[in-house]
Amino acid sequence: MRQVDLGIDGMRASTLGFGCAAVMGRVGRNGSLTALGAAYDAGITFYDTARSYGYGESEALLGEFLRGRRQSVVISTKFGIVPVPQSRIKNAVKPFARKVLSVLPSARKAVQRQIGAQFLKDHFTVEVLRDSVATSLRKLRTDYVDLLFMHSPPVTVLQQDDLLDAMQRLVEEGKARRIGISADPPVIEAAIAKGSDRLRSFQFPCSLFDMRVADRLRHYGGDNTVKVANHPFGGLSGAATTMEVLKSLARDSNTPAELRDKLRIVDESLLADIVLNTIVLGGNIQTVIPSMMSPSHLKSNIAAVEHSRFTAEEIQWLRAAIESSVRHRDIQDGSE
Q1: CA-based angle 66:69:72, to the nearest 5?
Q2: 3-state DSSP call for residue 18?
Q3: Between the CA atoms of 220, 226, 231 and 232, what dihedral angle is there, to the nearest 10 degrees?
Q4: I need a surface site. Which of 47, 54, 246, 279 has the fewest CB within 10 A?
Q5: What pTM was estimated for this model as a whole?
């Protein structure tokens, strides 16, 4: 697996990161350990978790898995969304909820609404920060995390100098190597505009439908800025739309002949190839975190970044063509 420089004291990590949001949440213990093991064996060294992931249990399982492997990986975690302690009854129904999702994907929204009620959001105080980091370190079985992010904060958090100072003290104490912010594009853009020397690490949604933050970060902070992209496929609807656009490009006479040939079969592997390489190469992102809890997704994603069938010039052409197609669709939808 290709490794990249994160600009933190020579720290390097894999281009593909493993997101632990589903660990001990949508996916149970055995399935989570299997997915973690497959990712590690494939050379993935970036693991992204949070206090709230897996009903508050994701960090503990990750820490268990990484026992004896800590020095060879990069750990990213987050604070600000606090998991509500689970009752024995709620813990007992988790396997049932996972089964429902595996059989009825259409039930995902209803389950997600129920899951959302299990968290307390917007908890950005110095006290919560200290308690959260202490808990994270204990569960992760480590003395420090490499990246500590604020988790989906409101833009007003950028004015909380006491919180930013407390986060920086954690760096000075050796409990975090770098602090940053994980949020939606508007908040990240506000953080970029603020230009704080303390916030040099960013995690944000980045897909073919919205790469503006990646473009803004291209020349921000130089090599000393960590840029991590999540949700690269834009969800199920985003993936479906992208595949439709690619099939259309394969039939379009304006598409170069060699590209049309490469787009002849639009499947999961081709989608991963175009999406991930557009973000990593075109977006100048160091690490991208797609969903990799299933073996097929892991295999497709690794193959995409390791052996792309497209040249850099073709990736650039495809990005422009897809963005143009999406803009045209938006205009048509708005006129109806």
Answers
A1: 120
A2: strand
A3: 70
A4: 246
A5: 0.88
